[in-house]
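pipeline/complex-builder :: batch 7 item 3
reading input block
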Amino acid sequence: MSRGVRVLSRLQIPPETLARFKPSREERAGPPDVVFYTGCNVLKTPHIALLCLDILDLLGVDYEVMGGVGQCCGVYQYRAGDFVNNGKMANATIDGLASAGASTVLSWCPSCQISIAEVSLPNYELQFGAKPFDLNPFLTFLASHADRLAAMMQRRVEKKIALHERPVFPEVMAAVRTLLSIIPGAELVEIDVPRVGTQANSLAQLPKYKQELVRRELAAVADAGVTTLATIYHACHREICDAGDGRSFEVVNFMELLGEGLGIDSEDLYKRLKLVGDIDAIIADTLPLIEAHRLDLDTVRDALLAEFGAK
Amino acid sequence: MDGLQDPADFLDTFRARGAAIADACTRCGDCFRACPMTEPAGIGDADPSETAAGIVDLITGGDGDDAAVRWTEACSGSGYCIPACKHGINPRFMVQLARGFARRNAGTAPLPNRCRCAGAMASRR
């Protein structure tokens, strides 16, 4: 997993952009307003995380970025029942996040939100008597600034949009609706299909059921005549970002729509790589970044095969 | 505060939270009924109350039963169970904690010092 994140992120953005995901080295006069906790895997789709940072910058929020594979939430050990190593990983990450001194940490990843807010922080509080911060979903934080963001809108986004929803945190879906409502021109179209799971990968244990859900949703979205299907979470985006190819609608991440309204340009390079498909062609396409990051070609090839398979 | 000092306490804390859930849970099965994964997982006909009891058994050191173990494997974290619970428990945490205990039971590192002790702490999100 860590190799995939490391390679995929580096095939899409140059070193100086990647540096935005590292904690600042400057001396601070005081703690930041918030910590933006990326988790691990969102960096496979760095345009999503970069849009989050760009919008925090627009709002003038003072933040530190933490996360990456070295600051895992511990979900893998938790799922395996390896509770001792789960505790080591989770408590180290909690201590790391707490070191910034902010009372609020914002999570992008819903798996991290569950793993830390519902599992590890309560444990930490019971072990040590207090929890050092609250962990809240990033999108609910953004929605709490919807009025300010509405005043910053620069472009109309004339799209009919269906949402690739997940029920894991109803407040996040409510936040997405709030934020969508402030984008000039954006029209939400409700799609009546079952909503299940944390992210796409949470249904991996029932692959046929998962495929059927996706098939039903894509058919319903096409029937609804929308221009756009917007994913919310990154794992879902990785799975269906190419589903618009050959269909009557595009698939984008919700943050791209918000960014577009705010005048922030972004490009979904993960989708571009996925659509290229051929491993040699991807390597040729990304050679300057491979060299800039001094990546080993065999490592790159292995990571691409693991991510996209052979075509 | 250094959370690295006492990693073994993490397991003890799970045991205590499991015991507290066992105290609070009435085994009504409303969490099971609210779950969208039971039918796809092939346990739609399982008894909700008995399956909830199997989950509680898992988080308090027991082996549960086949339906309970299957439910833990199928849980996708949707969270429909959370508002369904009238007893202040977060069933998503309960079921996913049970998954970890079930995997410990099935694995090569059996749970040491199985604990069925009662506790005062609960997950009440």
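note: The longest strand of chain A covers residues 160-164.
queue -> next item
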